[in-house]
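Re: the request from the purification team.
They wanted to know what the chain is likely to look like in 3D before they choose a buffer screen. I agreed to run a prediction and write the result into the notebook, where they can find it.
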Amino acid sequence: MDYATFVDTVTQRSGLPREKAEAVIHATLGTLAERITRGEADDLASELPKQLKESLVSPTPEAEAFGLEEFVNRVSTRAEVSPESAREGAAAVLSTVRDAVSGGEFRHVMSQLPNEFEELVHMPA
């Protein structure tokens, strides 16, 4: 999946204007990079469009331990959107990541997240 298709898909699934959808994409991936190990973030980045790779640079090799609410709060702050828009946007981003990468890679990412993230991935978008 190329970058334009990725952004278009997130825009459609989230209902956000394109510029806000792009902000939410980068905020979600940046927050995800903090929540998973650096190696897993690098693996994920290798399967996504090059314009998304920079957002997946993990600040530390270890994953930070935080739950879904903190994840949504960080996305909301970074993208400058409401928590509700951040939750819907993050769901759209993660479901688009699921469609854009191999099933095995997506399972590896999800295996590093608490079970509560499953609900976000399976939210109707």
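For the purification team: The chain has one domain: 3-121.
Please add any questions underneath this entry.
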